[in-house]
Design brief:
about 160 residues; 8 helices; alpha+beta; binds adenosine-5'-triphosphate; Alpha-Beta Plaits; binds magnesium ion
Length: about 160
């Protein structure tokens, strides 16, 4: 099965009406949406999601932000998707993220940063389990997959 990643369109992006434009970027890239739900993330779930940062000074603030208003939580799928999406998202805050990235194009806050993407295939697997049950994930074939994902000629690198 192709790699999956967990994407969270965070409270600031939903409030700023940016969810559609963010989804549009992933669709244009040819990635496949396999699950989505709008949800109010609880502080308890946000704490589990950011557990790796629990000793960092920003932990409580990041948890409160994630639980402050609804988020759009999604799973996207494609070979190599974790790296692809991290590049598309850009560095952690918009004031330093490259133009052309989601964070670089849509924000300059030093506090809110619009979107989360898993940072490794292993974190993606753990995060997906935190937010979705298996029956909420819908796999299917994209009709244009042959054009989107044509494999290179010769041995795989
Ligand atoms: P995310 O995990 O949300 O995709 P990221 O991987 O770019 O973001 P992490 O280092 O995992 O960044 O930090 C998790 C979250 O904690 C960030 O999205 C941000 O909301 C918050 N955060 C990270 N670093 C800082 C900081 N130096 N000051 C304040 N908040 C921070
Ligand atoms: Mg992270």
């Amino acid at each position: 099965m192709a790699e999956r990643t967990l994407i969270i369109v965070k409270p600031d992006a939903v409030q700023r009406h940016l969810a559609g434009r963010i989804i549009e970027r992933f669709e244009s890239k040819g990635l496949k949406l396999v699950a989505a739900k709008l949800m109010q993330i609880s502080e308890e779930l946000a704490r589990r999601h950011y557990a790796a940062h629990k000793d960092k000074p920003f932990f409580e603030r990041a948890v409160k932000f994630m639980a402050s208003s609804p988020s759009l939580v999604m799973i996207w799928q494609a070979d190599g998707i974790v790296d692809i999406v991290r590049k598309m998202i850009g560095s952690t805050f918009g004031y330093e993220a490259q133009p052309g990235t989601i964070r670089g194009d849509f924000g300059c806050s030093q506090r809110y940063n619009l979107i989360h993407g898993s940072d490794s295939p292993e974190s993606a697997r753990n995060e997906i389990k935190m937010f979705f049950t298996p029956d909420e994930i819908v796999d299917y074939d994209l009709a244009d997959a042959g054009w989107l994902y044509s494999t290179r000629i010769g041995p795989k690198k």
